[in-house]
Amino acid sequence: MTGVLPILTIGGDPHAIGYGHGQRAQVAIERNLALYFRRYRDEIGLGRDEVLHRARAWLERVKELDPPYAAMVEGLAEGSGFPLLSLAALNARYEFLYAGFVSQGLATACTACGLLPERTQGGRVLLATNWDWFPEVEGLWLRVTWDGLTVLAFTEAGIAGGKIGFNSAGIGLVVNGLVSHLDRWDGDGIPFHVRAWRILCSPSFKRAIAAVEEGGSPGSANFLVGEAKSGNAVALERAPTGTARVAPEAGILVHANHFLHPDQLGVREPLPEERRSTDLRQGRLAARLAQAAANGLISMERVQDALRDHDGYPDSVCRHESPLFPPDLNYRTVLSVVMDLGAPRLCYTVGPPCEGLYHDVHLLPS
Questions:
Q1: Mind giving me the DSSP string for 266-290?
Q2: Cβ contact 84:166 at 8 Å
Q3: How many other β-carbons are positioned within 10 Å of the β-carbon of residue 34?
Q4: By C-alpha distance, which of 93, 106, 225 is closest to 156?
Q5: pLDDT of amino acid 330
Q6: DSSP-assigned states of every residue in 61-95
Q7: What pLDDT does residue 258 have?
Q8: Exposure of 84 in the CB half-sphere (CA atoms within 13 A)
Q9: How far, CA to CA in Å, does 346 sit from each of 7, 68, 144, 204?
Q10: What 8-state DSSP symbol labels residue 119?
Q11: Residues 105, 293: contact at Cβ < 8 Å?
Q12: Are 87 and 215 in contact (CB under 8 A)?
C-alpha cells in the first residue's frame, strides 16, 4: 500500500457489497491473492491444494454461522472474477496464518490504544492503532450501509467487511493479533474477520461487546472497542476458552500482542522470542500517552506523535523491516490510524507513520 487509499462507497445487500468491492478492486485483489498464497507456502508451509482444501471447510462453516458474511465473500468472487475458494482462502487468512504462527514459532505485531473523554481535547473517545503486517499488502476503505448504520472500515482488498473503523452509532474498533496454544485453523466458532465485522455493525456498546463474547472462537485475538455515546472503551481478549476484559487505567487503554489475562483464560502463549517486542511496545505507547496526558488534554496529533515512537527500533511501536527477516518475509507498520468516534472522523497514513502525513476521512462524504 502506498499514498492515499481508495474509498469504496457501496450500497445494496451483502452480496451487492461484496460484488462492488470485487469489481472495483480487482487488480488489488489479484495482488493480495498472489501475496497470500506465497506467504502461506513460504511462511507456514501450506501448498495451494491444502490451502484450498482448508478454504472449502472454512467457507462451509461461515455459511452456517453468518450467511450475510458468506454472501459478501460470494459477491467478491463474482465481482472480481476470481474463484470462490481462492477468495475464501483470502478471507480465512487470520485462521490459517495464526495457527501456523503457533506451530512454526513465528509472530507478528500491532499496537493499539483507546483514550476516554477525560483525557482528550474535545472530550471525545479516541481509538488508534499501528497495524503491522506484510509491506506488499493492498488495502482500502469500505463505506457501506448495513442494517441502517453507516460503516467506514479498513480492509485488505478481497477480504469482506473490515477490521478497523467505526459506524454511525459511534462504535469503533481496533484489533491486535494474539496466539495461544489452543488456536486451530479448523476450531469451532466464529472466524476473526466475521467477528470483527459484527462488531463494526453493532448499534451499541453492549451489542459490540456481545459480538466478541458470544459463540466459540477457533483462535485468539484482541478487540479494542469504544463508544462515543457512553464515553467508554474496553479491550476484549478473545481466546478459544472465552473472553477477558481489560479496562482503561486513568482514562488510557493500551494493548499489544500478548494476553494481559492469560491465567484467567487458561491459555499459554508459545512465542517467548516475541515477548520482548510486544512488552516493549505495550510499555512505550502507555508511557508516551501518560506523558502527553501529564502535559494537558491529548489531541489526535499527540496520539500520532506517540505512534511514531522508535524505542526498540526496528521492532518498535512504529515498526520497520528487520534485517533478521528475508525481504519477502518481513513486516512493518503498513497503516496507522487515529479515530475520533464523536466527530466522527479518522486520520490515517500508509506505511510507518514516521514517513508520512496523516489524511483525514469522515464517516459521511462531504
A1: T-----GGGHHHHHHHHHHHHHHHH
A2: no
A3: 11
A4: 93
A5: 85
A6: HHHHH-HHHHHHHHHHHHHHTS-HHHHHHHHTHHH
A7: 94
A8: 14
A9: 13, 27, 16, 19
A10: G
A11: no
A12: no
Joined together, the cell numbers standing for residue 31 give 495482488
CA torsion through residues 230, 234, 238, 241, sign? negative
Query: Residue 348: in which H helix or E strand, if any?
Result: strand 345-350
Distance (Å) of CA 53 to CA 60, 88, 95, 253, 364: 11, 10, 14, 40, 40
Burial of 219 (0-12, 13-18, 19+ CB in 10 A): buried
DSSP string, 286-309: HHHHHHHHHTSSBPHHHHHHHHT-
* Residue whose entry in the numeric block shows the C-alpha cell 459463540: 215
Fold category of 109-362 in CATH: Penicillin V Acylase; Chain A (3.60.60)
Contact 202, 341 (CB under 8 A): no
Q: What are the domain boundaries of the chain?
A: 7-102, 109-362
Q: Are 196 and 156 in contact (CB under 8 A)?
A: no
**282 close to 222: Cβ distance less than 8 angstroms:** no
What residues are paired with 245 via a beta bridge? Answer: 236
C-alpha cell at 24: 472495483
* 3-state SS, residue 256: coil
pLDDT, position 271: 64
How far, in Å, CA of 277 to CA of 290, rounded? Answer: 20
Q: What is the DSSP letter of 359?
A: E
Helices 26-44 and 14-24, interaxial angle, to 10°? Answer: 90
Please give the single-letter amino acid code of residue 21.
H
Q: Do residues 154 and 164 make contact, with C-beta atoms less than 8 angstroms apart? A: yes
With beta carbons less than 8 A apart as the criterion, state whether 90 and 35 touch: no
Query: Torsions phi, psi of 298, nearest 5?
Result: -95, 130
- For each successive 10 residues of the chain (366 residues), what is the average pLDDT? 91 98 99 97 94 98 98 99 99 93 65 99 98 96 97 99 98 97 94 99 99 97 98 99 98 97 94 76 98 97 98 96 82 97 98 97 90
Cβ-based burial of 295 (10 A; exposed 0-12, middle 13-18, buried ≥19): exposed
State the sign of the Cα–Cα–Cα–Cα dihedral 257, 41, 29, 145. Answer: negative
